[in-house]
Amino acid sequence: MKKQLIALMYALACAGVLHAQSQPDKLQLSISTGYQREDFKWSIAGNQDGQNPNIYSELQWKKLGGQSVAASLQWNFWGRLLLTGGYERTAIQSGTVRDNDYNGDNRSNPAYNQLFYADKGFTRAIIAGLGYKLINTDVFSLTPYAGYRAGKQSLHLYDRSGQFADLNSTYDTDWKGPFVKALAQLRLTKKLSTSASVTYTQADYKAKADWNLIPSFQHPVSYRHTAKGYGLDAGAGLQYAITKNIDVVFGAGYFTWQTGKGVDELYLTSGQTEKTQLNGVDRKGYKISAGVMLGF
User: Fold this and answer.
1) DSSP one-letter string for 168-207
2) CA dist 205 → 174, 248, 258 (Å)
3) Which of 11, 23, 154, 226 qualifies as a FRET site for 94, CA 20 to 30 Å off?
4) Is 4 helix (H, G, I), strand (E, B) or coil?
5) In order of start, what are the domains of the chain with their CATH numbers?
6) What's the pTM value of the predicted model, to 2 decimals?
């Protein structure tokens, strides 16, 4: 009986260790830098019914890359509840954009095909949300979040060959909407841990462009795009504690954002507007980063 009692007490002690709540830092500040690269494209049809032709004009930005910086703050303000906010920005330093026009369906009978430089501009994102430590042990934690995200791209088209010396067209996007996120963290050793996350954003897409060399278009807003879309972001990371309050962090991520059909509204200098179908917008890319996390 005595041996059984000792065994039971030992088992309960082990269970207590496994299920005891890990005490997270009340405040966490993360700062990182890295590299991001993405592709971005959209196309429009010849009319609002998506016809004449089904792909009339198509813009494709390729290999938009540059240095990224990011900062985030998380506050464990009560019990298992967390407030979080973050900012990230990438300065575009490389990339090209191809402009294609077609007179026939399915990209047939091409009417225009030109490659331009696109190695300037930026992308950025701002998030704010609320999290809850659903599972929180010394070894494993799972935290769902919900909040709001506002993302922006500032994209360019210009020429260095001299053929279009005054070309300086811009295309600016906004992706805004609520997000949900799940973050899982696993402690591998006393100092080393790993994490994985997935985020879904339901986004309203809006864009405006200035096609500066076309005299029949209005300036500085030549046309606008609107559509409904979504974004998926997946990430993984490693975190190593160098002191009680300072961790070194490494991360990598992949993202894909898309819209459904929307509206292209063109503004002419005559005062008229013309609408056609926006076939869709597609954005894909990856990022890597390294930084530090301070806990208090």
Assistant:
1) EEEEEEEEEEEEEEEEEEEE-SSSEEEEEEEEEEEEEEEE
2) 6, 35, 9
3) 226
4) helix
5) 27-295 (2.40.128.90)
6) 0.89
